[in-house]
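User: Quick sanity check before I run a bigger batch. Here is a single chain. Can you write out its predicted 3D structure?
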Amino acid sequence: MTYHPRSILVTEAGFYTKSKKHYFSQRITVHNTKSTDVDRVKIRDSIPVSQDGSLVVNLITPSLAMPSTAPKGSAGASQVTVADGVVAQWTQPDTDGSITDPEGLSFSPGQDGMLEWVCAIPAFGKVNLLLEWEILGNPKVEIIGLDEN
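Assistant: Done. Predicted structure follows.
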């Protein structure tokens, strides 16, 4: 698996009401070096989750529906076919219907920003994945935790 260098674009817009957009793009290549096909390979990644109401995080690619602010444990995770044999989805819940992070908090699918691709990779084949998201906010507010380097 290869994580290619992440590209980042920062723009500002607006005359009276200014906004700042951080656009992130991450390419991932998965190569099957075996002489047999492999099914149900899961590649997990995440996008940031805002803890501030003035910041908006939008997933661009894959085009999964953003999770609602529904109560914890509610159903409704969405899936999208990205390519032949590749499906993107929010990380699926544990057997009790919730996803538990290391701190013991429960989330409905997508509310923690975790997503996964489920891939079928042919013998000696490659799968290219693309994860793109944007963060919109006020240009005067410093966003802590963004890796712009």
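The chain has one domain: 2-137.

User: Great, the batch can go ahead then.
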